[in-house]
Every structure is written in C-alpha cells, then in structure tokens.
User: Fold these one by one.
Assistant:
Number 1:
Amino acid sequence: MDRLVHHELRAVLSVFAALAVALTALGLVRGFSAPDRPGALAGYFGALLALLVLWTLLKATRIKWFSHVRDFEKAVPVEDLDVVLPADRFLRDQPISPGLFGMYLVLALPLSFWEPWTLGVLLWSALDWLGQAALVAHWERRNGLLLWRGHVGGRPWELSVSRRPPTRTATGARPA
C-alpha cells in the first residue's frame, strides 16, 4: 500500500525527470536556442496553467462526472480490511517510479525529436498529477485522515482511509 499523495508526487517527479532527459537530448541533437516568440510561449504556458487550475477545481467539487472528492469519501476504512500499513515507506525512499519514468521517457524522446511542442502534453499530465496531489493533501488535512492506494485483498487500486497518527514531539515522545 502507498499513500495516495506520495503516489501522485512520485508520478510528477517521474514525468519531470523524463521531460528533463528528453529536452536535454533534444538540445544536444538540435542545439540549444531561444524560442522564436517568447511572448507566445509564455501565453501558451499561462493558458495551460489556467486550464489546469480550472480542471483541478472541478475535481474538487462534488459534480458527478468530475469529482474525486466523492471517491475519497467512499474509501474503505483500513480497520475493516485487516491490513498492516507500511510505517516506514515515504516519498524520500523512492522519489521516482522507475516504470512510469521509463514509459514516459520512451514516449517523450521520439515526440521531442518529431515536434518539441508535443512535450506540452506530457507537461499537462505532470501538472495534472500535481493538482491531484494538492487536492488529496487538502482533503486529508481537512478531514484528519490519510488516503491509501494499493493492493488490498482482491480489490487492487481501491482507496482506503486511515486515521492520521498522533503527532510526536521533537524527542519522539507523544504529546501530553
């Protein structure tokens, strides 16, 4: 099992790493040059960010076809599943998903040599995952719960929910 927010951030880092490798390969093959119209490029990037913010806000609502919040609220409590949660697996232990990195790298390299602007699609997916991670973190903080994703019994990829563990002091002791 893996925390959902860690899964989303791991996906973002994997896609950004694949994009960095693809853009570096593109620069080495075609040469590093400034864009022809930097103002237009900034406008496209601004429009992409505006659409992503709108998309993330739609996912934060309870609208039937867009909402992810409904899925979070339907998550099965971990106590009902008789599963031991991994206490020592964090994002810093494995910041990049090797499978996702490889898949995006295989996709990004040919696209970057064919048309460099097509890498915007990959950037869209990374920023969408980043918005999803922000949405999950906000929901977890607001509800005092943790969302888990992973193989649970015969229901792979079903979301599970657990209580947030109590905070600890600097010495590691529980607060009084």
Number 2:
Amino acid sequence: MTRPGVMRVAKKKGRPTKVGDLIVLSCVGVVTYYSYPPKQNLLAWIFGVPAVLMFWFLFLMPTKCDYMTQRLKPCDRSVRGKARGCRDHGRWKRDAIFATVGRRNPGQRFRMMWSAPATSPMPVPARPPRDKASREANATRGAYNLVMLIATVVSAIAAVVALVPR
C-alpha cells in the first residue's frame, strides 16, 4: 500500500543480455548433443552448429544499431541482431546489406513513396529490344543458375541423408 502523494515507480523490464542468450543456446546445445551424438550425425553438427550461431548473431543477439548517422557516429540504440536496425535506421541498414552483395532490397517494391511526384511514371516496354551481347549474357546467366540449382539440390539431399538416423 502506498502513501497518498507518493507515486509508485514501475519496475523496469530487464534488457536481454548476450550471457542470457548464450546460456539458453548452451542448454539447447547440451540437449542436442545428447539427442544427436556427433559420432552418428557428424554432417548435421558440421553444418548445424555454425548455422545456428550465425542465425543467433544476425537476428537474435542483443547489440547496438551501429548505423553511421549524419554526425559521423554510430547509432547506439539497442536492437536484436547485427542484421537489424533501430526504428529509424532499419530500412537503410537493410538496403545497405543488400547493396553490399550487389542486389536491390526486394522490400523497396512495397514501400509507399509519400514524396513522389503526382505524375505517373513512364511506361516500361513489355519486351525491350535485345542485341547479341545481352543474349549471350543471359545465356551465361542461365548456365550459372542451372549450376547453382544443381548444387542446391545436391546439398539438400546430403543434409537429409545426414539427418536420417542409422
């Protein structure tokens, strides 16, 4: 019971810590170690442990936004994962991540452009004219895509075989 005129201060929720997350990951690792012994499931351990740690590092680890602001200092707001940004910088951080691998953020297609001009964009031709160089570039890209598809299917089959108990 509080005295009149005295305000109760709500208890602040504790921030997530790396140590707390590592304790949970360690417990999951111990349970997994005894459920799937490395001697019987070596490939699952070789690929699974780095994948889980990378997922935790990119999306779950408590860290700072670290987006370089206009004042040339990193943003110090708390976020979960190195791949995420705070509420102000999340969009630009994702754009920068995609730009580092030479791609465009697919989420840009769904963004509303409030400051866009009222005029409609120029119509894009249904099929642009092709020259010989672009046809050859598409053929090499097709060959590359086929090789990547085959490698993906082979690795998926290897992962399934590795996870099948013997």
Number 3:
Amino acid sequence: MGSWGTLGPALLSLAGVALGAGGSLFGQYLVSRTSARQLDVQEAAAHRAELKAAVLKFLSIAAQVEKAALAPPGGDGTPDRDELGRLVDGLWLAQAEIDLAARREPLRGAAYRYAFGLAEAARGATADSSALRGPQAAFMDAAYDDMWPGQRRTDGEPRAPR
C-alpha cells in the first residue's frame, strides 16, 4: 500500500503532462489548419483580383477592336489601318496576360478564340458582329469559372465557397 502512495502522485503527474502535451499538439494542429485555410482564401482572392484586372483590360481592348473593325468605311471616327493594327497588337498582349493569369486551360483557349475572331474581323474577314458573340460568351463563362471554380452563376453576387 505504501508504494501506491508514492507511485500514484508520480503517475498522475505523468498523465497530466501527457494530456497537456496532447492538448497542446492538438491546438497547434487546429491553428495550422485554420492558417492554411486563410492562406487559401487569400490566394484565391489575389488570383481573382489579378485575373479580373486582366479580363477587364482584355474586354476594353476587345471592344475598341470590334468597334474599329466593324465600323462602316469612310465614316467619321473610323481608325486607319495602322491604328487598328496597334489595337490588335494590344489585344494579343492582353490575351497573353490572361494566358499567364489563368489557372485553367478553358479560359486560355476561350481568350485565344475570342482574340482570333476579333483579329479576323480587323482583317476584314468578318463583317458581322454576331459572329463574335459565341466566342465572347464562351470567354465570359470561362473567366467566371476560373475566378469562382465550382460555383454556378446567380443573379446576384457570387457567394463565398463553403
């Protein structure tokens, strides 16, 4: 009986130390898991911001190219061929920015197809803007999917991932 009196407190102290260490390790695990989630959220937000800027730049230049390429010849404000060439060059540079910023291949391909259609319109191969609507819609859908993967489009703002 005397040995339990001396051994008991030592074993209980040892069990307390083991429980404390286990609790501390579990707490560190939870903190690191939360930090990893926060990092993922921050990286996704940074990607969306970078891609959004590239997409808006591309769309701005695409609108200028389309307007210039499909304007009636001889009208006021019609750009000359050199200016149209500079716009198309800017369009390809903006497409390259999307190529670098995109995480997924569908966006890269859609941006290329839309830019190619606009370049063809600038060359005079396309005279109807309706031929550009399909590639434009595919580009917009691919951009949305790249910014918010796995989420469906809604009428309102996109919801945060669960």
Number 4:
Amino acid sequence: MPTPRTRKTTSDTEEKIPATTVGTEPADATEDKAAPGDTETNIPEAVETKAPDVAPLEPPTDLEPIPEPELLTTAQQLLPATIGDRVEDEATGQPPTDPDAVFVPVPPYGTTFRCTVRLIEHVGMGAYNTPATRLLVPVGAQLKRQQMERVVARLHAQLAAAE
C-alpha cells in the first residue's frame, strides 16, 4: 500500500533555507571608495527647485452659456428602421384609438408634425428575442411628414389586425 502524501509545512522549508544575518555584507560594497587621504564623504549638493514663472490657473470669470439640446427631428434620431410589433400609448397601455389624432401639424398646413402622446413599442431584442420596451416617439417630438406617416400607418395596421 502506498504511503499517504503529506504537505510541506513552513518548518520543513525553514530548515533547508540558510539563515542570513543582517549586516554581514562585505564592507567593500557598503562603503564609498574614497581616496585614502579624503576625510569628507561624497554628499550630493542640494539642488534648488524653482517655482514656475506663470500664474496658477484661475477659473474664468465669464462662464459660457450652456447650449440648448437640439430637437430630435431626423429619422435616424427618432425612429428605428423597423417599427415594433406592438405600439401603444404609455399612459394608457393601449394602442391609440384614433391614430390620426396622435400627431398635429405645428404650423397650420405645415410639413412638420408634433406628437401629442408618448408612444412606446414592445419588441424582441437580441439573439433570443428578449422582450423589451423602448421609447418610439416622445411627447412634443417634431417629425417630418414621411416619419409621421410611417408611425400612423403602423398604428392603422395594428388596429386592423386587432379587429
């Protein structure tokens, strides 16, 4: 029967390592090699550091105004390439009953439309189509006519499929 293996302990390793004492280094390595007639040791001269000639940085007295964020108006900023399967109003949790009333023209008879409700969409994201909810159009977003027509057409198709 083989003998069981045992772990080495610190006492085993201490016996194998030779003990060293502090201060037993050769004297030639610790002393500076000075000429036999010199009584002074080699001490480097103190180097004086100079302060910079420039003034320290101070905060500016006139603060620049913070620019207002740009309105989200382009299709790349607002609408995804494909609109999700289920679009609904976030406040009610249901699709809008009148899709044509979701957008109103900004100037009367204009080409820019403002959204009156916060539209969200439920989509599947990732490789496993993990369900997610994302903002489609925020309240007050200004869309061009083509973008507005895409969203309204999707809302109409969604209402037609529900009936």
